[in-house]
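Appendix B, record 7
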Amino acid sequence: MTAVVTRPEPVPTVPGARVIGSTVTRLALRQVRRGALIIVALVAGMSAMVAATYASTVGDALDAAALAALAENPAIRTLFGQPVALDDAGGFTVWRTGTVLSVLVGTWGLLAAIRVTRGEEDAGRWALVAAGRLPVTAIVARHVAVLTGAVLTAGVAAGAALLAVGTSPAGAVLHGVGLALVGVYFVAAGALMAQVFASRAAASGAATALLGAGLLLRMVGDGVDALGWLRWLSPFGLVTLAQPYAANRVLPLVVLTAFAVTLLVVAVLAARPRDLGGGWLAASAGRRPRLGLLGSVSGFAARRLARPLAGWAAGVGAYYLLIGVLTVSMTEFLTENARFADLAAQAGFAGLGSVEGYVAAMVTLLAIPAGVFAAVRSAAFAADEAAGRLTLLHAQPLTRTRFLLAELVVTGCGTTALLVAAGLATWAGASTVDAPLGLLAALAGTLNVLPVALLSLGAATFAVGWLPRAAAIVGALPAAGGFLLQVVADSTGAPGWVGQLSPYAHLAPVPDAAPNWTASALMVIIAGALAALGLFGYQRRDLQG
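Structure tokens (predicted):
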């Protein structure tokens, strides 16, 4: 009898923690690379463009008297920061784009941090990874490290762009470091909120409120001399205190570095003691059920929209209340300083010498938050579908088109309500300083940008039907991308047809002039066509497709 010898099956090799960690890092990089590349390109492109066109757009228009008048005006300091070194191309670039780029980098950093941490955890995609050799703290740390590298790259790109166009090396480096540190601060803040709150929506709301508070502290500190110390409490205020191309102060950036590093450490450590899928703050499980607005698809959509709309309306309303309060100060300043009025007209903001002209110019910018709001809400619908939170609803005897149509209508109504809130806030602020601005004129100005916001809503709905993962980016293109296109076209002397591609080129300056009804109607028709294509695509594709 012959014995049969069996060879044991080979034991599979289990990857070590280092290999798993490298895989998680590559995953994090893959999740944020597209957004990071866009941010880097925008930061570098805007910095280089403004600095390179300084001589042709500003030239010798800013003499000593004009600079003194500009620095003494509290409204200018509140809106744009303290003007320093405006006789230098680099200093002018920092003053004109510094706050805008800081907000851009900070907003992307905090939202991306929440998306790749709390968002992925909510969707259940961290469960298997966290069950292995890599603890949750290491997973959070690697995602935060990738995002930190992305915002540091954006700061390096800004500094390199300013160096490339010939500005002072010290100022360029200081400005780039400041932008990078603001990004790191809000990456850390977003990651920390993702550990504190048990839902992505709550974390995003808290982090966005923190960003708004920081911006408000900077505005108050710059506008009111007696409260200038508030800037030391805000990341935006600290980068303005550094004064690139002027004093080149390092201490404010050292303070900002300490804040950012502290938040980074706390964010990583906060992930250790909590359960996967939970947070430090969680809704009470013992509260009574709230059944309001759950009787219909449209009611459910309105319920999901109510809390985000309240937050957005509070932030936008606070800003436009300030715009209304500054109406008289700004118009008087521009009337007395014709040089600045001419520069504003060259940049596409004519008529700032009158109250209605000033309001018309400022409410044009309202199309950006309104359009982004519509895009973000559409993206939230797509995210809920991808996470499986709408599966049971789709099992009901209702068509999928009805679900998306209800979301579309409710979001459109919410966007309109956001514009109305901004109009009421502008009128209220103007009334406090006895500015000659009627309620109907203020509402007409804010509602004039509704067609641009609807374009964003239509584009986002189109993306939900065909490109659900890109709903936020596609939806933001008409509002944010259109404004950027107009700025680039005006600043670089591009051919006229390039500027005409922006929807902003077809908005009349309401309430300073009558609305462009033809252009507005055409934009609404295009928005409707995009939405119809999105509904068609959504009906045909698979769930989570």
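Remarks on this record: The chain has a mean pLDDT of 85. The longest helix spans residues 17-52.
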